Amino acid sequence: MSKRPLILVTNDDGITAPGLRKLIQVMNEIGDVVVVAPDSPQSAMGHAITINSILNCTPIKIDEGPQTEYACSGTPADCVKLGVHEILKQKPDLCVSGINHGSNSSINVIYSGTMSAAVEAGIEGIPAIGFSLLDYQWKANFDAVADYVKQISLSALSNGIPEGVILNVNFPKLPKKEIKGIKICRQAKAYWIEKFDKRVNPLGKEYYWLTGEFINEDRGEDTDEWALKNGYISIVPVHYDLTAHHAIQQLNTWDF
Amino acid sequence: MSKRPLILVTNDDGITAPGLRKLIQVMNEIGDVVVVAPDSPQSAMGHAITINSILNCTPIKIDEGPQTEYACSGTPADCVKLGVHEILKQKPDLCVSGINHGSNSSINVIYSGTMSAAVEAGIEGIPAIGFSLLDYQWKANFDAVADYVKQISLSALSNGIPEGVILNVNFPKLPKKEIKGIKICRQAKAYWIEKFDKRVNPLGKEYYWLTGEFINEDRGEDTDEWALKNGYISIVPVHYDLTAHHAIQQLNTWDF
To answer: Which of B48, B151, B236 sits opposite A243 (nearest CB)?
Structure first.
């Protein structure tokens, strides 16, 4: 690529999140950066889009750097749509989302606003990567993974991500020197067992908080969960053809 | 199945939507019905779940019938989690979602609250089906498809849906006698070209409405779009393993 690549940056933790600020810093080293990120936290928004309400999108300056930034009132997927069609008015060379505060491995990819932003870009034919660090804290240490974020992004730009594929990158919560390397993985077959914390509000009405426990019974050593537990960075190639092709033949035997 | 099946019913258009009311009627003929549906429209919510706020879930009676009903303040996926873990406190024999007012074929499955509710049930190991009618109107004619909804649900109960698979059923907007039958399909490779309608609010600030045009360049005759255009009901088996398995080998050639 002769000219500097144009890079669209977004996330789901909101435009002030330290994970996003680190991602912007790294991308500034690689290309020309435009940020369109939610003006408030949008975790677990999945692939929600805003169709029954309006969207605001306002230029903003959060910290120093050559990037251009916009805060958007919508979901992560909205940010990508607005970013591409209204702000850039062209497809960027790369869209990166994150760095998420917390894991988007295994089944979490389904609920993830971070990954939905990346998938939205993928649907639009833009090479896209979602980055997540297995540390939910606002003060998580993103320095340890900055070099890997750069390396993976440069590899994606030079190799080209396969068509219809988006990269789901998760980093273990480890000091840099303890990270063993990168593994290409499949999504582990893990799930959440939900529990609801039932409480009573000041007016005497019951309400619920969703909580849960993450269960991984997948013993495969080719999964993202295995890689992360064993000190590796996991990269799962994700696609948006949800067809369970293997089931088509079986369903054709049904007598409707 | 010797006893009447226990059926969890939900949707994304909200608990008063005519499509849901029809689905409840049909399910009452098949089994014991518990409804946990959003208390307001939740279209295009994708697989969003509520983790940063509380959930309300209130018993309600919308119309006549033996069903038990609850209105929930959350997303469609929240409704399923609450329905299974707090209301039923057991896995139902079937979870049905819909009947959606509007298409969830092709790439729309990604944005669909209707399908995310069904997928959430699938993740929990519950046989699940999402139903959608290609008519966005509130007064859409769901009578034309009621018999098919029953037939497909009974087939699913008797055959058993393959593990890890959820059925995405879309009905063409046709009189019953013009519907040619049922096709098992793959998700068409179609997409939306977004357009944003830029307006100015009463205070002089710009805002946006998302609009767009649906483009199908997939010429395959095994797709849901083809089936629906040609007068068939489409059933796409959907799964939640988003891994693009075919891309793993290629990514392993990258030199990180």
So the answer is: B236
Tell me the domain boundaries of chain B: 6-187+221-251
Is A154 an 8 Å CB contact of chain B?
Answer: no
Q: What kind and span of H or E run contains B248?
A: helix B248-251
Chain A residues near residue B48 by CB distance under 8 angstroms: 44-46, 48, 75, 111
The three-point CA angle B45-B29-B46 to 5° equals 5
Confidence of residue B2 (pLDDT cuts 50, 70, 90): low
Cβ of A48 within 8 Å of Cβ of B45? The answer is yes
Q: Which fold has domain B6-187+221-251?
A: Stationary-phase Survival Protein Sure Homolog; Chain: A, (3.40.1210)
| Torsions phi, psi for A53 (to 5 deg) | -150, 175
B47 and chain A in contact, CB less than 8 A: yes
A136 touches chain B (CB under 8 A): no
- DSSP symbols for chain A: --SPPEEEEE-SS-TT-HHHHHHHHHHHHHSEEEEEEESS--TT-TT---SSS-B-EEE---SSSS-EEEEESS-HHHHHHHIIIIIISS--SEEEEEEEES---TTHHHH-HHHHHHHHHHHTT--EEEEEES--STT---HHHHHHHHHHHHHHHHH-PPTTEEEEEEE-SS-GGG--EEEE-BPP-EEEEEEEEEEE-TTS-EEEEEEEEEEE----TTBHHHHHHTTEEEEEEEES--B-GGGHHHHTT---
Distance CA B36, CA A137 (A): 33
For A120-150, write each residue's pLDDT tens digit. 999 999 999 999 999 999 999 999 999 999 9
CA distance A237 to chain B (A): 5
Cα nearest neighbour of B236 on chain A: A243
Q: Which CATH class is domain A6-188+220-243?
A: alpha beta
**Directed axis angle between helix A18-30 and helix A143-159, to 10°?**
40
Q: How far is A32 from chain B (nearest CA, A)?
A: 23
Within 55-74 of A, beta carbons closer than 8 Å to B belong to 55-57
- The whole-chain average pLDDT of chain B stands at 95
Give the pLDDT confidence score for residue A183 in this predicted structure: 98
pTM of the model: 0.94
- The string of pLDDT tens digits covering residues A86-95 is 999 999 999 9
The segments of chain A whose pLDDT lies below 70 read 1-2
